[in-house]
Amino acid sequence: MDDAAPPTALRLDGLAKHFGRTRAIDGVDLAIARGSFVALVGASGSGKSTLLKTINRLVAPDAGTILFEGEDVTAIAAPALRRRIGYVFQSIGLFPHMTVAENIGIGPRLARRPIGPERVAELLELVELEPAHARRMPHALSGGQRQRVGVARALAGEPQVLLMDEPFGALDPVTRDALGRKVRELHDRLGLTTLMVTHDMAEALLLADRVLVMAAGRIVADETPRALLAGAGGDEAQALVAVPRDQADAIAELEG
Ligand SMILES: Nc1ncnc2c1ncn2[C@@H]1O[C@H](COP(=O)(O)OP(=O)(O)OP(=O)(O)O)[C@@H](O)[C@H]1O
């Protein structure tokens, strides 16, 4: 083994999950180095969300193992696991009847390590929200603010790993861009290991250190953004890279 390589935060071996006849995950082997920011892209229905959910045990796989810092996730109590692995949901997923502060504190509370108002204020500051937002209900926030609360909630238990399922999907492009940069900055500052599902190859190329492409339950490409832009990864990956590249070319042409 290479002594200089960073330790593995997550290791998936022979992972499979079927829903009836659908092979949502069809034999995935994957090692994610501590500290890396990995994007998971691929067509709708290719298994990205299911893969993410198996990691923090929201979905139980039919076969295979998942090691988190060398420990089988099934051996870790779910609340403790979910405190150590923050999760930002696709549809934000805030509890509508709870204040922002209660939403942010739910994970630590379930893990019997409740957080106080100072920590809530600190988390709000981390995602650039006002301290007064702590008392608001989710419906009284904009979509971008709600998603920031979702990120704060995922960070509340001081996780080592951050899983994000299409976290910026519902946001306007300007907010999306700002929040993407913010998350990357927090990833670097807090020393996180991040696995982010996105439909947007441009976002994956700009934010991640490594891009995985999923198709029909399998990982069909695993490349750095630079390698993808240089043509690596095969047809599936290159079809996805072509989208932002063609758009950039078309805009450049309009600018004449
Ligand atoms: N609870 C479930 N019951 C039955 N089928 C499911 C369930 N969850 C996922 N599937 C199926 O498994 C496959 C993979 O779904 P998954 O949500 O993981 O894909 P995805 O790549 O995340 O899609 P999207 O980008 O649209 O979110 C799909 O065919 C989906 O319909």
From TrEMBL:
Record InterPro entries: AAA+_ATPase (IPR003593), ABC_SmlMolc_Importer (IPR050093), ABC_transporter-like_ATP-bd (IPR003439), ABC_transporter-like_CS (IPR017871), P-loop_NTPase (IPR027417)
Single GO molecular function: ATP binding
Superkingdom field: Bacteria
One Pfam entry name: ABC_tran
Keywords: ATP-binding, Nucleotide-binding, Transport
Keyword Cell inner membrane: no
ABC transporter domain: residues covered: 10-241
Keyword Nucleotide-binding: yes
Name under which the protein is recorded: ATP-binding cassette domain-containing protein
The species this protein was found in: Pelagerythrobacter marinus
